[in-house]
Each structure stands twice: as structure tokens, then as C-alpha cells.
Amino acid sequence: MKIQHVVLLVILVAVAYAVYTLSVSPKPSCSDGIQNQGETGVDCGGPCSSCAAKSCSEITNLSKRDECYWSEGVKNQSVDICNKITTSFWKDDCIKGVAKALSDTAICNSLSSNLSNIECIRDIAIDTKNQTLCEKITDFAHRDICYYRIAGDTKNKDICLKINSNPSMYTCLALVTKNSTHCDNINEQNSKDWCYNRVATLNPEVKTCGNIKNTQTKDLCYKVVAVKKINIELCSIVQNKTLQDSCLKEVAEAKKRMEELQNQIAGSKISPQ
Fold it and tell me: Which of 33, 139, 153, 199 sits at 20 to 30 Å (Cα–Cα) from 175?
């Protein structure tokens, strides 16, 4: 037999064997019991679930197993791992964590309840400061929270105007602009008082606290202004004795810290001999 024929025969046998092997051997998978296809362990890692997640399945305690899947699902940003969780609350929380990490609202659609879906979209919107995502939220309260948070983070008063709730909209405007006159437009007294108090923490003015009707809230407001201005005389306006004592103490501590800082600045300006 010629050499060429022998070589050809060997090649044909090799090809036939390869075809046979491929036809009878299963394709590599994440359940074939073999470490292949780039896996870092047997049937785990690489294109498969993380090896840590695989070990979760070996935990007999249901609660701890769910906790393990939750941790691995969020860490590996894997909805597939989250879906292994049996408790619906933790499964949804895991999926929301993945959706937020990837900023992908489409993942929110796989959640088990409408409320979870809304919270998922809201959290992504706030995290990415994307006000257009707030428009997808059907629940007014959660939509308002979405606009409120983004407006506060971006200091954009125009976003405040999209808020449906009267107290939330004007409180938003007051805080973004640091202007307590917006609080005047709030139609509910407790919310109005809270608005004045919050503005005073950003722009400490005694007159702002004077607009508050509730005595306790007014005392808290005066205390905040006294501490921020480091004005111990303002503590005398506080009617509640406990709050007044707390005011005196905190103003004294603030004054001490300011004096220490001033001494450090003065010392740093002295040229070395």
C-alpha cells in the first residue's frame, strides 16, 4: 500500500473517531460533573454559578441557605442565584440588589409583587439621579419620594414642582432653595412646622423657628440654631428645661471645638524659628 494511502486512511479513522466521540459524548454543561468550559471548580465558576453559590445548596438549614444565596446573588449580580431563594421577601430583596447594582429596571419586572417592582425602579432612579424613571412609577407616594430625593441630591427646584403632594412639594422647594417662605404654602400645620425646622438646620435663623406653632418642635428648632450659631444666649429661648440644658451643653462643646480650630490655624501661620 502506498504511503499516501496509509496517511489518508489514518486521517479518515481520526475524523471518524472524532465524529463518533462528539455524537456520543454530552456537550459540556454546568451539571456534567466535570471541570471544563472554563469552570474554576466542578460545575461552578466561569460560565456557571459561583462556586460559593454552589456550596449554598449543601446547607441544610433553609433560612441559612437562603441567606447564602442572597449574599452570593447580590455579590455576583446574578438573578439566577437569587431565584434559588425560597423565601419571597429575600428573593425580591436579592433581585432588587442586582437590579440596582446593574442600574437595570428590566430586572425589576421579575419581582413577585407590584410594590417590590415600584421600590426597585424608585431606588434605581434615585441612585442614578434619573428623574425620567420616576415617571414609570404608578404609585403617587413612591413617585413623590423619587422626585423628592433626586431634587434634593441635584439641588434642582424644577423637579420639586413635579411632586404631587402639597407638603412634600413645598418642603422640597424650601430645602433646595434654603428659603423658609416656601413652607408658608403648606396646608397642614405639622408638616409646615417640620418644614421650618428642617430649613433652620440648613439656614439657621431665629425668625424661621418663630413661625413654628408646636412648642416642642419650636424648642428643637431654637436649639439647632443656637448650636449652629454657637450662641449660648439663644438657649434661653428654649422652654423645655431638658432641651435647654442640652442646648447649653452642645453650644459649649461647639464653642470649644471652634476655639481649638482657631488655635490650630493660628499656630500653623507662625513661621518656624
Answer: 139
Reduced to 3 states, what is the DSSP secondary structure of residue 41? strand
> What pLDDT score does 211 carry?
96
From residue 141, alpha-carbon distances to 18, 124, 126 in Å are: 64, 16, 14
pTM over 0.90: no
Residue 46 has what pLDDT?
Answer: 72
Domain locations along the chain: 50-112
Helices (H) and strands (E) in the chain, counts: 14, 0
SS3 161: coil
Residue 36: predicted pLDDT: 80
Cell of 171: 418642603
- Quick: pLDDT tens for 253-262: 999 999 999 8
Q: How far apart, in whole angstroms, are the C-alpha atoms of residue 183 and residue 218?
A: 15
Cell of 125: 432612579
Q: How far apart are CA 18 and CA 185, in angstroms?
A: 81
Instruction: Give the pLDDT band (50/70/90) at residue 112.
Output: confident
C-alpha distances out from residue 255 to 204, 218, 224, Å: 16, 23, 14
Residue in this structure with the C-alpha cell 465524529, named with its chain if needed: 19
